[in-house]
Design goal:
single chain; seven-stranded parallel beta sheet; three-stranded antiparallel beta sheet; 13 helices; CofD; LPPG:FO 2-phospho-L-lactate transferase activity; Gluconeogen_factor; Putative gluconeogenesis factor
């Protein structure tokens, strides 16, 4: 299929959810022109440390998307992917850092910008598609909660104290105000399909939507809008929220209702579900999506065990979407 015949799909998000979806979509790179627009608000873990020390844009979400779209034709490609995902578990100063984050930081210093560093890494990994920062401005997430408290920083929003586990976000924004990267605007405007998620509603998905120009870019796009609902709630963000409430928030911030909403309907492994419930989290249930749009209730869960990485100081999701199931469901819509 020629480049001009490919369907242009834009995935908006960050973190593990976007990585999972892109891994599946990459199998259809002969049919799809893939662009990943990733959040630039990460402030935790290795990314947060490098951001504080070097004053650069956070690279973690871009790195995850690059690895997901990297070539996988031989053992050399596999070794490169493992290298970019490698996390140091010892060494003073290195413990907890990710090799891919360090390389992107070094390339930014050498080439003079994060965008050029991402482009160079794309060539190294022979990425099938492109990865684009939602903004090239240095921003932080800001959340105003239902009790009036204002919290600044993605990591602080993601890791609330126990006393705030059942609080909800009433207003999400970026500070200082920032505009979208022009390349990201163009990708959305020209897209045939725009996919929001999967990933944490506020810190992965809506973190992109609150950047200046996003709503206008979406309004100017003729693309189908698809929302992939997260599997589990997030403490301090989406407790007691299910599919209808998620879609309502997507519509509130994007000024547009999704044309399609995908939600998982298969059961979770009992031992993993018990771990989440012990923390106070719950599965996101199908309670409808309100008026408009098509709800697709599908088996989307992965049965593959999630491996924890030594040296990783952040909490990671143990229940995840299945890359192939998710990509196949999207291809049927497209």
């Amino acid at each position: 299929m020629s480049e001009s015949q490919k369907k242009k799909i834009v995935v908006v998000g960050g973190g593990t959810g976007t990585h999972t979806l892109l891994r599946g979509l990459k199998r259809f790179a002969d049919k799809l022109d893939i662009t990943a627009i990733v959040t630039m608000a990460d402030s935790g873990g290795s990314t947060g440390r490098l951001r504080d020390e070097f004053g650069q844009l956070p690279v973690g979400d871009a790195r995850m998307a690059l690895v997901a779209l990297s070539a996988d034709f031989n053992s050399h490609d596999e070794l490169l992917r493992e290298l970019f995902l490698y996390r140091f578990s010892r060494g003073e100063g290195l413990n907890g850092h990710n090799f891919g984050n360090l390389l992107l930081t070094a390339l930014t210093d050498i080439l003079g910008s994060e965008v050029l560093a991402i482009e160079a890494t794309s060539r190294i990994l022979r990425v099938r598609g492109q990865v684009v920062p939602v903004t090239t401005d240095n921003v932080n997430l800001q959340a105003v909660y239902d009790d009036g408290l204002v919290v600044i920083g993605e990591h602080e929003i993601d890791m609330p104290p126990v006393s705030r586990h059942e609080r909800h976000i009433k207003k999400l924004s970026v500070t200082p105000f920032a505009m979208m990267n022009k390349v990201a605007v163009q990708a959305m405007t020209e897209a045939d399909v725009i996919v929001l998620g999967p990933g944490d509603l506020y810190t992965s998905v809506l973190a992109n939507c609150v950047v200046g120009g996003f709503v206008e870019a979406l309004a100017n796009s003729k693309a189908k809008l698809i929302y992939v609902c997260n599997l589990m709630s997030r403490l301090g963000q989406t407790i007691n929220m299910h599919s209808a409430e998620h879609v309502a928030e997507i519509s509130r911030y994007t000024k547009r209702r999704p044309d399609f909403v995908l939600i998982n309907n298969s059961p979770f492994p009992a031992e993993l579900l018990a771990s989440y419930k012990e923390e106070g989290n719950h599965p996101i249930k199908n309670n409808g999506i309100g008026t408009g749009g098509v709800l697709l209730d599908l088996d989307l869960i992965s049965t593959e065990a999630v491996k924890t990485v030594s040296g990783d100081i952040l909490e990671r999701s143990l229940i995840r979407h299945d890359s192939d199931k998710l990509a196949t469901a999207l291809l049927q819509i497209i």
